[in-house]
Write a structure and sequence with these properties.
Helix content: 55-70%
Structural class: alpha+beta
CATH topology: Beta Polymerase, domain 2
Number of strands: 5
Radius of gyration: 23 Å
Strand content: 15-25%
CATH class: Alpha Beta
Number of domains: 1
Shape: flat
Number of helices: 7
Length: about 250
């Protein structure tokens, strides 16, 4: 991934560190300039991920509006996005042992840009994945299906790493986005699980962990029940055998 010809942030950080030990006016004058350049480079770096989120959000909203206007059911309940802060991005890079370069970070960290799609039914989750995969400018690099194979704690969701082109003033870049697709029940469970782990700083009492595990099973059963009821309703309305109909 090509970086601008301007000074790399890691080079700037090294020069800033060199000046920190100097107690003279020249060092104080240079330091703000170096920091401003660092800020510009990081902003430029993160912008490509923001634009990628804009692109994928537009695609999802088009699908959502199309189905709301032309069908009785929309497979998208809502969409949320998040862009890692510079601090969070650098912290993760350090934990993963990335070289202190933006090129290395871009190569090894693929969830700088993230989007979450919440759907009414499990069939909607896979439908959205298939619709995106069929679009010529979207490339799916990785699929982790935690619905077919939930995590040990009961977490369920479909995770995709995909790339989408971002058209900049001087180049086009295929930027990775992490997309999580889940049902309302899965999203509710994941939200509560996150809040509990945050409150207990990861040291969750065993009794709560067991309750969370039980709640995950209940959420899974709810999804299955709602899918069955929906299939029976549509079979009655359309004279089908209950397969998915838009």
């Amino acid at each position: 991934m090509h970086e601008p010809a301007s000074m790399q942030p890691e080079m700037i950080l090294q020069r800033v560190a060199e000046h920190l030990g100097q107690d003279d006016g020249a060092a104080r004058d240079v330091l703000p300039a170096e920091l401003r350049e660092l800020q510009r480079e990081l902003t430029r770096f993160r912008l490509r991920y923001k634009f990628a989120l804009d692109e994928i959000t537009t695609k999802l909203r088009i699908l959502q509006e199309e189905f709301e206007q032309t069908h009785s059911h929309s497979p998208i309940e809502h969409v949320r996005t998040r862009l890692k802060s510079a601090e969070s991005m650098m912290s993760k890079a350090m934990k993963r042992g990335c070289e202190p370069t933006l090129e290395s970070i871009a190569e090894k960290i693929q969830d700088i840009a993230g989007a979450r799609v919440v759907c009414p039914f499990i069939s909607d989750v896979y439908w959205i994945k298939d619709m995106l995969a069929a679009q010529a400018d979207v490339t799916i690099l990785e699929v982790k299906d935690y619905i077919a194979a939930p995590k040990p704690n009961g977490y369920r969701s479909l995770h995709l790493i995909l790339t989408i082109p971002v058209f900049l003033s001087d180049r086009t870049e295929n930027v990775p986005v992490e997309l999580q697709i889940r049902t309302i029940a899965m999203d509710f469970w994941a939200s509560v699980d996150h809040q509990i782990h945050y409150k207990y700083d990861g040291a969750v009492p065993a009794s709560l962990l067991e309750e969370l595990s039980s709640a995950a099973r209940t959420a899974g059963e709810l999804d299955e029940t709602m899918a069955r009821l929906r299939g029976e309703l549509r079979a009655t309305e359309n004279g089908t055998n209950g397969q998915y109909l838009a």
